[in-house]
Amino acid sequence: MKLAVGSTNPVKVDAVERTLEPYEPTVVAVDVDSGVGEQPWSIEETVAGAENRARRALAATDADYGVGLEGGVARLEGVPGLSLIMWGAVTDGDRLERGSGPALRLPDSVAERVDAGAELGPVMDDLLGTDGLAESEGAAGALTAGLTDRTRALGEAVACSIGPFLTAYYGGDD
To answer: What CATH number is associated with residue 84?
Structure first.
């Protein structure tokens, strides 16, 4: 199974490799534009970024599947505050499937800065005194005391978006 990941971020590539390890994947990182802002601000925008990455990665390679992963923030109905969200999309060129990773409420002090226009990654780096948190444990790792991390959280989005291609339950329905 050959997959093109629409990002050169090592965490995103690792999430695909680790999640699909039983399938012995060949994974290629492709630098593509998500087509959305650096800080996606809704489920719709985050999903669109993942979809764009998946389509563009597949188009740039001879892979079997294009995979797009996108993190964003959103106000979720019935959930207080601002949440970190993660979405994945997978395409084989005909079908496009989507799946989410976990959602995590952001601390109010972080949410206030993001609401004011700051990007989550730099806000978290400032809060923690780190540099490049988004390319390591990510906000998910820092905010769960290491119970999960960005790789595992994005891996859930990979599993949920590629699952329909790996099982017979969907039968190609959209």
So the answer is: 3.90.950.10
- Whether the Cβ atoms of residue 14 and residue 150 lie closer than 8 Å to each other: no
User: Measured between alpha carbons, how far is 58 from 2 in angstroms, rounded to an integer?
Assistant: 10
pTM: 0.90
Which residues make beta-bridge pairs with 84?
Answer: 73, 104
pLDDT tens sequence across 131-157: 876 666 778 888 888 888 889 999 999
CB 4 within 8 A of CB 57: yes
Q: How many residues does the chain have?
A: 174
Nearest to 36 by CA among 73, 81, 79: 73
The answer to whether 94 and 82 have CB atoms below 8 angstroms apart is: no
Instruction: Tell whether 22 is covered by a domain.
Output: yes
**Range of the structural domain that residue 81 is part of:** 2-104+150-166
